[in-house]
# Entry
Amino acid sequence: MLYNRYMSIRKIICLSMVTVVFFLSVGNLKAQAVEDDELFKPVEIKDGVTLSILDCVASAFKNSPKIRRQKYNLDIAKSNLGIAKSQYFPVINLNAGFYNENNSDNIYYNSHYRELPSVGVSINKLVWNFGKTTAYIKMEEFYKIGAEYEFMDSLCSTLFDVKAKYYALLKSQALLQVAKNNLEINEKFLKLATSKKDVDKTTAGLNLSEAKVRYIEAENDYKNAKIDLNNAMYLDNQPDYKIKDTQTFTYQNDYAYQNKGEKNEVFEPQTFNFPLDEAVEIAYENSPDLNVLISTKHAMEQSLAYIKRTYLPDLTANAGYGFNNSNQTANNSLTVGVNLSSSVNLMELKHSIKGADAQLNLADNEILLFKKNLYFEVKRAFNNVEKAQNQIPTAKLETEQALKNLEIVESKYQSDELNYVALQEARKDYINAVNEYINSLYNYNIALIEVEMAMHYHIVDIHHKSEHAMHYHSQELIEHLNKVLGCDEKEVPKIKQNRNKKSL
# Structure
């Protein structure tokens, strides 16, 4: 059991070296096994539990119909490949029969003739058809590889979707806290205004009513965000759970008004463990969509080869045995034959080749178009990360300044140095600053997810665990990629760099 687990972990590491360049090391396999078990045993999501982002992804991997759909498509592709390979498998024919004949005129025929039984068995086999079946098999093999990449993409897409919904819930949860704080501030300011002018009290009452409306809206946004996360996890019920902060999104009401607790630590941006100038090449390496297009192109190449060979003959062989027992004689027969046959419509072949050439050119063009779009998508994603990263410290400083200013203005309002308008302006500035700070944290994490989506390189949290989930869903997929990509379980896997797709 331990040996099987050890070998499984070796497989996962090997696949990760291919799909995520420069990302994982082959260090402590035992520790990785403990971590990866979390995806094999997703927690039961029920009332009162606190979930991590990993728990949510594990639940989605377990429940997702989209992942199962791609797994079924992969099964279909495997079946089609098996059908293609079966062309070389012998065809066995069996027959057994009874024949009885009665004639009224026995001048030319016997008045009674009977065969009982008539038995025969024969085997027909395609020996060679000059590469037509070979091209057909290769075509289906590439379609199968494409289905494997689509299966991988379904895992990645599910992971990205859960992460985005998770951060949306963290954001709405934080904004709900801000709305609650705003409500409490307005309740306090209403009490302060009762000892001041009547107009101050009236205005404070209006602001309190507005704060109540904002709180109801924030609460509704929070509920909808949780529903969205439940949908991403494909839960059958709506449990009352909580979620944990992440390394890149931490907000525990630290900037609440008159909160004397500890403030957030200094923001540390996520570091990329690969050279940024190689990001596009890594994206080309990892993109399942690009690999699907490339596999489809290879399949079309084999389809063209098949079409070009349709005029070539089929070489078949057959052997058979028969036994016939009639009311007159009984005999045994043994037949052996070799046949070479060809049938072709030259005009149809000519236009079929032209059509296949056009399809191949179209596939090349689709690959070129996708790579160009992916190039700009990666560049745009990194620009967004840089922008969001630079906004966080500024938004945090603005929040601290707005909080301090509100405290000063409140003190001056109590001493009649400033009026109620100044107090409300300070409150609005403070609430807007906190909201902007929370939005900046959210935007930064979404920008990171956009980088991950563009590169199919999971920078934060759980990349290798998603690969383990792929192993969990399809043992055959891992074994196939190990074979195709040269990963050997008996050797320590090495990072494979610079798999050049430029020629494609």
Summary: The longest strand covers residues 112-128.
